[in-house]
Amino acid sequence: MGNMDRGLDMARAGALLLGVVLAVGLVGAATGGEREIRITGMVGNLPVDLLIGGAPPAAAPRKRPPMPAITQPVLFNTPEADRIMEALQIFPPDNPWNEDISGRPVHPNSKNIIASCNAERWVWFNLDMGYVIVPPNQKKLPVKITAYPGESDKGPFPIPDNAPIEGWPVYGGELEKLQREGRGDRHVLVVDPVNGMLYEFYAGRRTDAGWEAAQSSVFDLKSNKMRPAGWTSSDAAGLPVFPAAIRFEECERGMVEHAMRVTFRRTRREYVYPATHVASRHTSPNVPRMGERLRLRKDFDTSGFSKHPKAILEGLKKYGMYCADNGMDWLISITPDSRLKNLEELKRVKGKDFEVIVPTGPNEGPRAK
Predict the structure, then answer these.
(1) Residues in Cβ contact with 262 at an 8 Å cutoff, skipping those fewer than 6 apart
(2) Across-strand partners of 293?
(3) Is pLDDT of 320 > 60?
(4) What Cα–Cα distance (Å) separates residue 158 from each residue in 145, 191, 195, 226, 348?
(5) 319 close to 255: Cβ distance less than 8 angstroms
(6) What is the pLDDT of residues 327-339, one digit of tens each?
(7) Beta bridge partners of 210
(8) In whole angstroms, what is the distance from residue 278 CA to residue 237 CA?
(9) Residue 201 and residue 215: Cα distance in Å, rounded?
(10) If you write DSSP's letter for every residue of 147-192 in order, what string do you get?
């Protein structure tokens, strides 16, 4: 083969490669970069075998230690709870809560959505979502459902006597008194790690006749199954609360390795996977949907933050946060654990430092077949 012929074949191959790259680039921009294309054949005497695009493989889950024996209820703000959480896989690795969204494309309307949420406001937090860990043989009790029986899972439920009410112990007072008299949303979160089950209640209250709640939700932590379409949960979006709560042991480890939870004053009457429920009359495309996923911008400098807030911010870059309920703009949920330090530094982050992403659907991203 002469040099001129070889040069022509190489030029043809180069032109073909350039055309394919441009085409795949356009397709990838429209589909979030997950379209994979393989090109094989010959250009003259040169073989061509190209694999272009495709979603990155799901990261291997972090190796976890064996689950400690759980023989009695364990509160969230203890070293024993830390060891249990280190061992617990909260939903499968390919679940949306565990999905790395750092490479997802920015939503085309991100700028307007962020602006509607008060872009100049700082990020703040609620020390609200405590939980209790129960042994696999915890006695199950009936719970009277007072407001959403048609969108609640059936009992009985493994609620122990020391189940914390949302905000305890930060709000002060004896737990038993708060169980009976406290105000607010009063979430109650119960985790059974051995059986891989999560039980959540909205407006939980202990009475002389037993426990009651406005709503009850049960989640299988071993499954990607979400709530039925149109159903609420203990959160307005139909999402679980516990997987979003920021915990001490993960901040100590250096990164919050799951999506988090945020509220906004105005939301849209629309939801997006994995959310299943709406709680608004607004229809403007410029306000966030329930389940809208936001991410801290990659170029946001976290180097000047202390260990715990930095772990949160790095997690917000990789896993982001879901719009989960109506409430104060840019308010995220953190367990009321006094071991967490320097959280007030989060006030240095503003809404404009975030972007809305194009999310994956139930059979996309790491769940693609």
Answers:
(1) 294, 321, 322, 323, 324, 330, 331, 332
(2) 322
(3) yes
(4) 15, 9, 12, 21, 41
(5) no
(6) 999 999 999 999 9
(7) 207
(8) 6
(9) 6
(10) S-GGGS----B---TTPPPTTTTTT-S-HHHHHHH--S---EEEEE
